[in-house]
Structures are given as C-alpha cells and as structure tokens.
Design goal:
12 helices, Aspartate Aminotransferase, domain 1, globular, alpha/beta, binds pyridoxal-5'-phosphate
Length: 371
Amino acid sequence: MIPVFKPSYGQEELDSLKEIFTGGWIGLGPKTKEFEEKFSQYIGTRYAVGLNSGTAALHLALKVADVEGGEVITTPLTFVSTNHAVLYNHAVPVFADIEEDTLNIDVNEIAKLITPKTKAILVVHYGGHPCDMDPILALAAAHNLKVIEDCAHACGSRYKGKRVGGLGAAGCFSFHAVKNLACGEGGMLTINNGDWYKRLNQLRWLGIDKGTWDRSGDGRFYHWYYQVNEVGYKAHLSDIPSALGLVQLKKLEVMNNRRREIVARYNQALVNLPWLQRPVEKDYAYSACHNYVVKVKDRDGFIDYLSGREISTGVHYYPNHLYPVYKPFYRPLPIAERVAQRIVTLPLYPDLSDEQVTYIIETIKSFKPGA
Ligand SMILES: Cc1ncc(COP(=O)(O)O)c(C=O)c1O
C-alpha cells in the first residue's frame, strides 16, 4: 500500500541518535538549544522555543497573546489542535469561512467577524500554501489584534519571499511524524518578542525559572534551587527529537524541493480531468507542499477506487465547526461545508518514487466518477 505520508529518514538520523545516547543527556539540553537557534535563523525570527508538540505551541502562543475571555477568529478547515488551543485558553473560537481555491481563511470573512471582544486572528497555512498575510496583518493592525500563524503544514513555505512563522506575532510549528520536518513528536514557537521568550521558557517547564540543564549540565555542580513563578505546563522539547530535528532541518530544503517536483508532475498530468480540480499556488506563495489536495466528484467512490489499487488517501479535514464539541460555536460556513465534501489528499512525501507517482497518476486517470 502506498501511504499518504511517510517521514524521510536515513543514516544521518540514526547517527544523530547514537550520538545522543552515548552523550548521556537526553532531556531538555544543548541539542534543543542548538535546534532552537538554527530554527530561528532559518525562519528569520529572533527566538524559537522548543516544545513537545505543535498543539503545545498553539496553546502557549495564545496564552502569551492573552486571549483568555475574548474571541479568536479562526478557520474550520484544520486539525482540531488549532481550535482546541483556543478552548484551552478559555476563549471563544469564531469560525470564518475559507477561500475556495487555497482553502485558507478568507480575510473578507475575518473582517465581518471582528467585535470589541476579538483578541487574535489564528491563521493556518493550509497544506503549506501561505495565507494572504498582508491584508490579514493590515486588518489586525487596524484593530490592535495579534496574528498567530499555525505553520504545522508550512515548514519552509514563503509568503512574498519571506518564510512563514515570522510574519505575525508568533509562528507555531509541528514536528509530528508526518510533517515536512519530522521528529516523531515535537513543536516550535517562533517569536521576536523578548518578554514572551522569557515567559515561554518558564511556561513550557511548569513555570520553573531555571531548567535542569541550566542548573547541572555539562559536568557542573548540581544546583537544586529554583523558583516557580506561575502554573506552567510540561511542554518542553527534549534532546532526542531535537537531534533528529537538526538533521531534518539540514535536509528540509532538499526534501521540500522533491515534494515540489512531485506536485509539478501531479499538476501536469491531472490537468484535463473535468471531474478533478487541482490545488493552486498564488503569485504571493511558495508552498512547502505538505499536502496535495484535489477536489473531486464522487469523493467516496474515488477513495474506494484508489484504496482497491493499493493507494491510500486522506481527507484534511472534516470542518471543525461541525464536530459535536464545537456545536456551541457553530455558524453556517457555506464554502467550507461544500468543499469539505469534495477534498481528497493524495500521497505526497519525498521518498515517493517516480514509478509510484506514475502509477498513482495512471490509476487516477482510469477512474470514472459515479453520479
Ligand atoms: C494544522 C495543524 N495544526 C496543528 C497540528 C498539531 O501539531 P502536533 O500534532 O505536533 O501537536 C497539526 C498536526 O498534527 C496540524 O496539522
């Protein structure tokens, strides 16, 4: 079976783990620090804070943005982590409809939903395609709102030449097993605000003011004393995933270029199928191509047809405002509700071979949609 996603690991990742296991320090320590420094340099922000998931990054970004008790304008077409993070912060998710072509939150819809209670706009660069950030940032500035970027799909994506994750107040990355940069589990918050940086370093470590490495690492005397300034979380990244992350970061551009090559082949081959719409890439966008999402007629028939021929597919996502847990926040979102019935995610990962891509293309072309 050809999977939808697969991490791209080789000898270098294995070597990095060996180094960690022989080094004697596997918790939050020097590898995480190095990964944070290299990642912030890559994104172009002053700081990066390593966390144990993208979900934690979203949770803590909204916490430092102080959204509690207010409203956060958000997208329905995302993994539930995005919107759960709003609820973790005791804020109200206000769902805005999406653009039919990019599947990203629509700035015109955001504008209609701003109230005196709005605290932040939470955008997801869906599938790696950046949101149209300039109008979103201008709208936010006019209303004094924070913009938080969910970059879980967009590690390496660029908006008008600039890497996403440094465009708003905070960028939230995921290094979950299927992401472009995969560490098994892990996440990163990218920010420029020095006060937020200090607070996040404590928030991720139960509110404690000094990490264990800072108090004892590198053969130093173990200083047991620390202070606890607020109720934080157990949300830090550790040196094992960070060692993998450092290797993956080095390979990221090459891996993303391979993704783009496969996308170019899909786009070229699937051009003349009247029942299938290909994804777009706008002039302002350079996508990290996390997902290849097509819109098709007879979606369920299509999924069954490919699955019967050893090709896995996915659906990203069921619109979040339709889940029972989000019922109190439901509002009709015609575009999201309509397109969600037609979207399918095709296999896309760097190690997909040219032969497999050809097989997937030929199988898709042989499908005849039912009514
Ligand atoms: C859009 C989006 N946001 C947030 C997350 C959460 O990331 P994590 O699984 O690392 O918590 C994911 C993926 O899992 C995601 O796809």
